[in-house]
């Protein structure tokens, strides 16, 4: 049971993060380093970097970065997931490599790919 208290402040009216994806978001999966991967129904697949924020340290000039990496050629972007292989190697520690799987709604296929993100 959750009890309410008058000492609790509710800050849910102001979002900490807001990111624009065209076409409606059907599924999202969080990853390391504040990255999130998204299937946007009518706009394909994208990855976004969301900087850490709180109501106390939000900077108005900080922007979220959204990168579209796969279109669906008219199909509906439906499912997405990723698996991390961590750093590419010791010499390139500022990159993160992941295996991505995505699927669209009508063509009955899934696709596997590799996504490399510069940290």
Automatic annotation (TrEMBL):
GO BP annotation list: protein histidyl modification to diphthamide
Instruction: Cite the entry's keywords alphabetically.
Output: Repeat, WD repeat
Lineage top rank: taxon: Eukaryota
- Pathway note: Protein modification
Any one GO MF annotation of this record:
diphthine methylesterase activity
Give the GO cellular component terms, alphabetically. Answer: cytoplasm
Q: What is this protein called?
A: Uncharacterized protein
Organism, as annotated? Schistosoma bovis (Blood fluke)
